[in-house]
Amino acid sequence: MSNIQDKVVIITGVSSGIGESTAKELASKGAKLVMAARREERLIKLQEEIQMNGGQAIYKVTDVSSHEQMEELANYALKEFGKIDVMINNAGVMPLSSVHERKINEWDTMIDVNVKGVLYGIAAVLPSMRERKEGHIIIVSSVAGHLVFPSSSVYSGTKFAVRAITEGLRQEECNNNIRTTIICPGSVATELTDHISNSELKASIKEQSEIAIDPANIARAIAFAIEQPSDVAINELIIRPTIQQ
Ligand code: NDP
């Protein structure tokens, strides 16, 4: 039996890309999924597909930048399944731009979703995990959480931030048998670049994304971290296309 079988797993940002692939991978390995994103039509479609393949998944429309909605998401998981084994903070946005463009609203959104959303996710699940003395918190950072390039200043800032937060959480909670994993993908073929508002930059990033790998590869890395024995923590994984610099 897989070590993922019957684990209750919350995943945010499940309506496309890495989140969607991860939901399918974990459902195929017997997880009980609690899926979150804002676009309900996509959640319904994914739930139907998972159920048709014999998997278990419920969903709750959730904006991760709302502390209240994240608490409601965790409470829903506890009400329906009685426990939370794994929290995957995957939702993220990447409207890249140069600082001089002063795209203040986009900065705010990146900080709200990529940083506060992760913090709210951690806050929502930590009390029940500490009580059970068992849990696993996974955050999807990025190779941009290790390096900065022109136009990634704010995005990289958010991805560096969540790596720091997760490392601090690891040190604070390892004695409570709570594992943490930071996932750092390189270029992955998803909808992430769709929201870049500078059209020239968007075209150039899309061109660079031709090397992007399928999100199923990241889903397998996440499953690998979850299926380790509970006394083994995979603290960080970097997964790039082989030809990415
Ligand atoms: P997608 O754009 O395909 O997926 C992003 C997901 O985040 C969607 O499901 C979207 O759902 C959700 N989301 C966005 N804002 C919110 C919000 N406020 N509340 C709830 N959900 C939200 O991109 P990816 O799959 O690529 O991105 C997943 C993660 O992977 C992100 O954290 C990203 O930074 C990271 N990453 C991606 C890389 C890549 O090359 N693709 C590389 C490195 C890291 P909805 O709009 O329905 O709410």
From TrEMBL:
Gene3D superfamilies: NAD(P)-binding Rossmann-like Domain. This is Oxidoreductase. Belongs to the short-chain dehydrogenases/reductases (SDR) family. It comes from Heyndrickxia shackletonii. Keywords: Oxidoreductase. Coiled coil: none annotated. It comes from the Bacteria. PROSITE patterns: ADH_SHORT (PS00061). GO terms for molecular function: oxidoreductase activity, acting on the CH-OH group of donors, NAD or NADP as acceptor.
